C-alpha cells in the first residue's frame, strides 16, 4: 500500500492544501463536489471505472517504477524554509493514519492510498465522522481503508526542540528527540551489532583510532546527591571514598565502571528510600580525619551485596522492578578479578569513559536497558562528531524497529524530519543512498514508503522532481522545480535556485562588506590604497572581485602621480613572477 495523496482542510498553518506524494499521479480534490480527479503525471487519465470498480490505468513501463528499490514503494521529500510547515505535514499524516489521537483532527481531511492497483480513501468529509464520510471519483464511491491495519508507521527527528507531536501515545513508533532520551539502549544494541560495522566503515573509511567509539557513563544520581551535600555522616563518607576511588586513585576503567554502577544505584536508593539504606550505613565505618568511609576494597563488596539483595520496589520513581533487577544482575556478574580491559583511563570530574570494545559489550550484554533511566544514569558517545551521532541515532532506531516482532504482511511508513541535520555536506550527499541501503537490508515487511523533510538541496539532487514538494512560506506545495529536473542536478545550481537563496548566494555579512567597499573605494586616498587592494583580493567570487577591481583601478588613475607609478610598478612585478 502507498499513500499517494493528502488534502488538509485546516491544520496549523495549512489550509485547503493538496499534497501529492505519488511520482506517477496528480490528484486534486473538489471540496464542494466531494470528489477527486486523478491524472497521470505525463498526461492522460489515471483512473478508470470498470463495472462500478475504480482501478488505476496501470503503466508497466512507467519510468519511475521500482526506481529506488523493489522493496520501496516511493520516497517523497518535503523541502521548505523554516516555518513553512514541513513538520506539520508529517505530524498531520502520522496523527491521521494511526490509532490513538485522530480525534484531535477537528477539520475535514482526505488520505488517498493505492493498494492492489485500486484507490482507497480514509478521512473526514463534509464535516461527517470517519465512519460516515465518503469520497467519489468518476461517479463511483471509493472504498475505505484503515491505514493503521495496513501499516507500521515510524517517526524520527534530529530536531532537539522537545515539541509535542499530537500522534504521541498513538500506534506510531515514536523516535522524536524527547522519546530518544528514553531509548538510549537502542544505540548500544545497534553498535553491538554486525550492521554497525558497515555503517561505521562508511562514516570512518580510514578507521582512524582517534575516532574509535568510546562510551561516556554519567552517574547522575551520585553527582546529584554529592551536590546536595547530605547531612548523614556515613553517606557523606561513602560519597567521599567513592570519589577518591573512581576519579583520583583508580588506574582501571573496569574498576571505575563497577564502582560507578554501585555508588550510583546506592545514591538513587538513598534519595528515594533512605530508611532502607540505614541497615547498610550501620555496617560502614568512618576512618581518618577527612571523614572518608573505609577503604574501597572492603566498602564496595558491602555496598554491592546490599544492592544485590535489595527487594523494596516501592518509591523508586521511573526505575521499574525489571530495571532494578538488571542493575542487580550486572552487579552480581561484575567480578573484580576477571581482568577486563575497558581502554585507556581519561580523568574527568563526573564522567567515566570506556572503550566500547568486546569486553565492555560482554559485561553489559542483555542489560542495556539500565541506561534508559534518565534520572539515574545517562550516556553519550565520546570523540564522535555531531554528524556521526546523528547517523548513530537514526540507524539505531531503524535497527531497533526492524528487530521488533511486527506483522510481516504489513507495509512500513517511515517519516524522517530533518534527518540530514548536523551532517557534513559529504554525508548529506550520501544520506539518501545510505538510508535506502540500510532499510532495504534490515526490514522484511511489505513495501516501504519514506517521507522526508529537509532544507538541503543535496536531497533534491537525489530525487526526481516528481518526488519533491517545495513548500513556500505559506505552506503551499509546488511540485515543479521551476520546470527543471532536480535529479542529478549540480548542487551549486540548486543553491542558485531562487527557492533556496532568494536574496543572493553569499552570506549577508560578506554582502554588506562588499557593498561598503563599493561606496568607499571612489573616495580612496593614497595612504590606504594597499588596504583596499588586500580587501578586494580576499573576495572569492570572481565576478564580484572583478567589479570591485574596476572601481579600484578607476580611482587609482585619480590619485597622485607618485601613487599611480608605485601601483603600476607593483603590477609589473606581479606579472614578472608569473
Automatic annotation (TrEMBL):
Protein's recorded name: AAA family ATPase
Organism for this UniProt entry: Sphingobacterium faecale
Pfam families: AAA_21
Recorded superkingdom: Bacteria
Gene3D superfamilies for the chain: P-loop containing nucleotide triphosphate hydrolases
Domain ATPase AAA-type core span(s) in chain numbering: 75-461
Higher taxonomy: Bacteria, Pseudomonadati, Bacteroidota, Sphingobacteriia, Sphingobacteriales
